[in-house]
Amino acid sequence: MFLRQREPLSFERSVPGKRGMDLPKLDVPVAKDTRPAHLKRGGFDALPELSEVEVIRHFTRLSKWNYGVDDGIYPLGSCTMKHNPRLNEKVAGLPGFTDSHPMAPDAFVQGNLETIYTLQEWLKEITGLPGVTLQPSAGAAGELTGVMLIRAYHVSKGAKRRVILIPDSGHGTNPATAAMAGYEVVELPSRPDGTISFEDVTDPVNGKVRKGLNSLVSELGHEIAGAMITNPNTTGVFEFRFKEISDLLHSVGALVYMDGANMNALVGVARPGDFGVDVMHLNLHKTFSTPHGGGGPGAGPVCCAEKLVPFLPVPVVVRDTMKVGEGEVPKHSYRMDWNRPQSIGKVHTFYGNFGVLVRALTYCLSHGSDGLKEATLRAIVNANYIRARLKGTYALHIDSPTLHEVVFSDTNQAKHDVHTLDIAKRLIDYGYHPPTIYFPMIVPGALMIEPTESEGKDELDAFCDAMLQIAKEAEENPDLLHQAPTLAPLRRMDETTAARKPVLRWQKA
Amino acid sequence: MRYLPSSPVEDRALLDTIGVPNAEALLVGIPEPLRLRRDLDLPTQGSEQEVAWQMMGLANKNTRFCAQFLGAGAYDHFVPSAIDALISRQEWFTAYTPYQPEISQGTLQHIFEYQTLICDLTGLEVTNASLYDGGTACVEAALMAVRVAKKRHTVLVSRGLHPMYREVLKTNFAPHDDLKLVEVGLKDGVTDLADLQAKLNGDVAAVMVGYPNFLGAVEDLTTLAGPVHAAGALLVSVTQEAFAFGWFEAPGKAGADMACGEAMSLGNKLNFGGPFLGFLAVKDAHKREIPGRVVGQTKDLEGRTGYVLTLTAREQHIRRDKATSNICSNQGLVALRANIFMHLAGPEGLRGLAEQNAAKAQYLRQRLLELPDMERVIDQPFFNEFVLRYTGDYAVLQEACLKESLLPGLDLGRFYPEYAGCILWCATELHTRQMIESLVEILARVPATV
């Protein structure tokens, strides 16, 4: 990483006549041109002309400006940046999987269907929920699928209802999702410890009263379609009254959606199906180690309770067991069940990001029931180790027991006019990717750290040492932090101009 | 567990620093009755060798074909070796969304270049960092058109659009009581102009047509744009085979206001339908309504050119329930494959590949039409897919092909009852003349059914 030389845009390197691809000889007659004149492809304005070696160098050089999980700790809170096993990549690249066509008849893709079915079974046991769809392509797509299931359920009971409750600590995708599913969002206030407040909360600054869960449930009652709750919440704290929350919501017929972004804290330790969750999504690219790929592809399977199963997207992969004689091993075959009249329909063109599902199943088989639990505990130990080492130097806004992540505040450093952004940028100079910053919004100047189970003591110590050194610099030489980063390929970027006068593509001068 | 950096001595040191006797003690925040008091009922951990064999066993249970004459939204193309080699670099595949631009310039510059090339292919001015797939790209395009059009609530969808894209649109429109999806019928394989004109009114925000459509036929965007624009609606072209951009005019230059669809053809394998690559390109005037991540060019403190995620005021982490979409990721690595592919192909490669696809499909069609039981159905310009009526029994034909490890075209009646008995065929640069001759030879032997 961190090559110092500049790599220009490829377009600036383009030279007419260069080629990076040779085509096979055409062994059939040249195509007759039946296109109307106005539909014939005209020229290209940007496609560059480069040889293969230049293309490879270009993308290799660009890659060196990225920080990856193999470079070191990647402590983005809520993002679960864990090790990406190479076996998973190799398996997902097997031609048996990669060359299979999504429109091929079921009989010829039995391996794919068994892969999907087996992963479904693992996720059912892990979440304690009996229904699964693997179609959603990402966490947000899973949320949308889940809320559509909630809607379909209520519609089947007579009315879709009007409101979804979402805690103020929730991820921004939750309210955006509820809106996309046609719901009005009502915010649930948090208590000082970050968990959902049953009681009304008076804002200490403006004196405004925000209604707590009790008031909202009694006032809105049957208008509430459901609540979307992240658990553990975005401060890393388990909603310890989760069962009471779900009982209260169920008492007015509302359903409980759990945002599973933080499931890495629970696998093998607690199951959402056991504490009242009706529907949830998992992020395979977080909890199940599938690579983030610089933004995707991910996968956001949705798991649900029995009462929501009829509404799952089509097709659902099912297993048929053929009759065999006594003492023989039963034979299975797999098929896609499209005949589900109450289904919400399709949420992906085909069956989801299948290549990602293959990686997730490989992760499951490698870990097994014992390894999954060990990974969870290790992730929790690592986060608490960082908490123990940095507590005091960095302010802990919330002092409740935390699981897989810890959220600090910049209030100690703010006294020296050093803020979260400065701390984050200075970490880059120390060779680390910064944590998630300014989220959750309920913590002032939040620094949200999630080390995951992939870090050993050495790496945790080196990271903590850097954080402590930065805190010292904040007192002694705050300007060092204001200027940071100085050792990265670029200094701080002018994001204001980028948004005000957007340049979103290259154009020929 | 080989992925966990644990050792008894170090683990002890971690716990001592925290001040707990064991890891379980850290679960104190989870109330006792909510904890799982047993092991998960799943197999225990597997070594790399065991898991590799198990997964290879699954991959081997899929049937391998010598040639697949099936497209229908998922196209088999040659993938240059450089792509797998490059995307296997950990800097590309393990990185997160580029939130910290100073150490994510690789991803950011790549996306800026990718955006440039998607704009070039589509002839439009602004695109995003990619969407999940063709179907969900249609949803984002339709919802965006409704936002742009303001106070219009209907989206007209041509029956020629991929049937699964239409299904995904239907699912996502269902929650919006105020929005309407209305289908426009087909005539001779393309959108029926008379039906379109009858359905256009002041409430129509957008009209979506396939380019080429699911039946392989190209829609005349220029002709359609007239009535659509006269009604004050936006014309949205939906392309499921990105190679067609090398053959047909860029939609933005032929009359479309927005172009969306599926770009998996650019450097990706079939992967049983995913991960694929959705795209959406729009006009500059509409840029603040586009969903998803967008990368822009800017300068750093020292005046050096660099790239950042921008126009974030549209997004959910700022606008929450008022955001343009709930999308906060993209198909990053798939977009990278497409970007590398477009760099390797260049203008000549893309045009040449398109010419080969057109030539192979035309040859396949001509040879199939020489068979007594294949008949013309649609007479429209096509690219690498086309429809023929088969007077025999599809099940028998399929059986005969599968016996010889060939996957035949799609039985169209499954999605279009009006085209029952018709087959949607596809050929790409991967299909040699010999493969085509083998197919024709096998089909010639299929017994005619009465």
Evaluate the radius of gyration of chain B: 25 Å
- Helix-strand pattern of chain A: HHHHEHEHEEEHEHEEEEEHEEHHEEHHH
Derived structural class of chain B: alpha/beta
State the end-to-end CA separation of chain B. Answer: 63 Å
Average pLDDT of chain A works out at 95
Oligomer: heterodimer
Count the E strands of chain A.
15
Which segments of chain A are poorly predicted (pLDDT under 50) over 5 or more consecutive residues?
none
DSSP strand (E) fraction of chain B? 15-25%
Strand content of chain A: 5-15%
Order of adjacent strands in the largest pleated sheet of chain B: 2-10-9-8-7-3-4
Shape of chain B: globular
Q: Give me the Rg of chain A, rounded.
A: 26 Å
So how many helices of chain B? 14
What's the total count of β strands of chain B?
17
Q: Classify the helix fraction of chain A into a percent range.
A: 25-40%
Please supply descriptive tags for the structure shown above.
A: alpha/beta, four-stranded antiparallel sheet, 14 helices, 33% helix, globular, B: 450 residues, alpha/beta, seven-stranded mixed sheet, 17 strands
Description:
The complex is a heterodimer of chains A (509) and B (450). Chain A is α/β, with parallel strands linked by helices and 509 residues long. In chain A, the strands form four sheets. A seven-stranded mixed β-sheet of chain A has the order 1-9-8-7-6-2-3, with helices on both faces. Chain A has a four-stranded antiparallel β-sheet with strand order 12-13-15-14, with helices on one face. Chain A has a two-stranded antiparallel sheet with strand order 4-5. In chain A, a hairpin with a 6-residue loop joins strand 4 and strand 5. In chain A, 59% of the residues are buried. The mean pLDDT of chain A is 95. Chain B is α/β, with parallel strands linked by helices and 450 residues long. Chain B has a seven-stranded mixed β-sheet, sandwiched between helices. In chain B, strands 13-14-17-16 form a four-stranded antiparallel β-sheet. In chain B, strands 1-15 form a two-stranded parallel sheet. In chain B, strand 3, helix 7 and strand 4 form a beta-alpha-beta unit. Chain B is globular. At the A-B interface, helix 1, helix 2, helix 3, helix 4 and helix 5 of A face helix 1, helix 2, helix 3, helix 4 and helix 5 of B.
